[in-house]
Amino acid sequence: MPETLNLTANHHERDLHQIEVYERLGGYRSARRALTAMTPDEVLETLESSGLRGRGGAGFSMGKKASFVPKGTMDKYLCCNADESEPGAFKDRLLMQRNPHQLIEGCIIGAVAAGANKGFIFIRGEYELQAKILDAALVEAYEKGYLGADLFGSGTPFELVLHRGQGAYICGEESALLDGLEGKRGNPRLKPPFPANQGLYQGPTLINNVETLCNTPAIIEKGAEWFAAMGVDKSTGTKMVSVSGNVQRPGNFEVELGIPVREIIYGLAGGPPEGRELKCFFPGGSSAPVLTKEHLDLPFTYEAMAEAGSMLGTASMIVVDDSQPLVPLALRLAGFYRHESCGKCVPCREGTVWTVSMLERVDSGEATPMDLEIMAEVQQNIIGNCLCVLGDSMAMPIGSMIKHFRGEFEAHIERARAANDLEHLPARGAGELAAAAEAGPI
Amino acid sequence: MDRRRFPLGWDEAVDLDREPALVPDPAEVEVPAALRASIEAAMGRYPDTRSATLPALAAAQQVHGWCSPEAMHQVAAVMGVTPAFLSSVATFYDMLRTEPSGSRYVYVCTSVACHLRDAKAVYDAIAEQAREQDLEGVEVREFECLGACDMAPMASIDGRFVGPLDPSDAEELIGAVKAGREILPGRGLEDADYRLPWSEERS
Description:
The complex is a heterodimer.
Chain A: H1 19-24, H2 29-36, H3 40-50, H4 62-67, E1 77-82, H5 91-98, H6 100-114, E2 118-123, H7 128-144, E3 159-164, H8 174-181, E4 205-209, H9 210-222, H10 224-229, E5 231-232, E6 235-236, E7 238-245, E8 251-256, H11 261-268, E9 278-282, E10 291-292, H12 302-307, E11 316-321, H13 326-340, H14 346-364, H15 369-382, H16 390-404, H17 406-419, H18 430-439
Helix pairs in contact in A: 2-6, 2-9, 3-6, 5-6, 6-9, 13-14, 13-16, 14-15, 14-16, 14-17, 15-16, 17-18
Chain B: H1 33-44, H2 53-64, H3 69-79, H4 83-90, E1 104-109, H5 112-115, H6 119-132, E2 138-143, E3 155-157, E4 160-162, H7 170-179
C-alpha cells in the first residue's frame, strides 16, 4: 500500500505558499463555503461525522472538542498548536513550510465551528523559516479580506495572529501553551476547567494541532463521508507519518490509517540500513512506549497501537536498529524530559531527575539489577500523578524499554562493572543474562 | 556575609539585602526607538498586553545580544511590568539567553532521533572547531529536538536548518559562521534545490 496523498497532494506545486497559487488550486473555497453557505452547526456536524481525530497526540475527536465550546457571543479563541517539539516529529514543519494557506484556511474553518473571533498560531521559536513563511501568508490573507473584520463579505470577524514561542517543549501541552501565549512561564494548568470553558484569557478556547486544522478544508469540500471512507473503524482519514532514526530513507509520508506498520518502516522508509535488523521502534514520538519486531504487522491505527501497549501519538516513528545500545538511548531520552520538565509537579520534576541519575549508574556499572526494579517503580509513581503527561511521556517509554529489554540493561550493568573494575555482583537469572549478552551488542 | 556570587548574568542582581525592583518609571528609562516600536507593536496584537512578553524579550535580545539586566529594564519600562516578572519568563525559555553567550547561535540537535544517527560526534566536532577557530559572539550548544529528524544529524544556525551533517562538515560550518558566509550552500532546508540525499531513490 503506497502513500495516500490528501494533505500533501499539492506539495509538488511551485510557489504553493503564495495565495494566488493556492487559490488557483481551489484554496479558500471551503472557508468561503463554511462562512457563506453553511451554518456553524453544519460545519461542526460535518467535522464531527468525518471522525477526524486530533493529530497532535491525544487523538480526541476534533468535532467533539469544538462542540464543547459554549455558544454565546462572548470572546472566544482558537489556538493552533504549532509548537511541534516532540522528538521525532516534523510533520507540521512540512505542512506550514509548503502550504501555509492550507493552515490559515483550516484555522478559519475551526473558528467557524467554535464560534471564535480571534485566533493564534503558536509556533515554536526554532521554526524561523516557517514563521517567516506563515507571516507572509497571513499578510496576503488579510489583504484579500480572508482574515480581518469581515470574512468573505459574510460579516463575521476573525483575527489570526502568529505567536512565536522561545523554546520550551512543555508549551506543546495545551494549557501550558495558553500560559505561554499569555506571556508567562509555560506551566500546565489544573483541569478541569478545560480550555473549552476557561482557556486563553479565561475565555472559551479551542486548541487544535496544525495537521488537524489542515485536514478541515478538504472535509468541508469533499464531505464527511469521503473522509470517513478512508482509514479503518474509528481511525479515519490519512495521517502524516514522520519516520526517523535508523532507516534508509527518513522523511514524511502521508498514509491512510490502517496501513501495516511494516509497510511504513520497510516499504516507505526503506527499513534499517543494510545488514541491520530492527530492534524496536517508537510508533508515536519519543513519548510512546517502544514496540518490537512482533508488532510490525499490526495495522497503524489509534486502537491497534493502544492495544499493543503503546500509542499512535504524533505518528512519529523513531526506528532503532540492532547496533544501538539501549542504555545511552534511554539516558538521552530521560535527559530530554528532565530538561523540559517545567517543575510544577513534584513527581515529574523529581522523577525525571532520579531516572537520569539511575540510568547514569546503569551506564557506569554502579547500579545493581535491583536498581532496575526501583527505576520501574519510580516510573509507576510518575504516571497519572501530574497535571500534564510530560512525566508520563518519559515514564512510559523508559518503563517499556526495561520491560522488553531487561536482559540488555542487566548485561550492560555487568559489562560496565567489569570494564570499570567495580566489585562483581551477580545479576538475577544468570541464564537470562548470558542469553542477552549473546543476543545484542552493548 | 559570604554568599555565592555569580559573575555573569542578572543572577548577580539577586541581592537579598536589596529591595525588589519596581516597575521602572517610563520617563526615566531610555529605550532605543526601534525596540520600543517593536514592543509596542507586539503589545497591540493581543487582547492582553502581557502576552507580548515573549516577542518583547526576543526583540530586546536581538538588540542587546542577550536578556541583560539593561534589556530587561527597558522591556519592563515599555510594558509596565516588574523586571522580576520578566526574569521569571526569560529563565524558562531556552532561546532566551540569560548569559552573554553570544548574539548568534549554533544549535546542534542531539535529541533521540539525531542521537541514533551519531549526532554527538557532529556536536563534538563543531564544538572543537569553534574552539580551534576562536569563534566569538556565537552561542554553540547542544539542543533538544529541532523538528528536523529527517535531516538528522542536523544543526540550526540562526534559524537556518542544515543537514544531514557529518563531523567533517564542522570545519566549513564554523568557518562560514565566523566569516559570515552562507552556511553549507545547498544543504539548508530553505534552499530552493534542497533535497535529502536519498530522496531521488523514492519511487
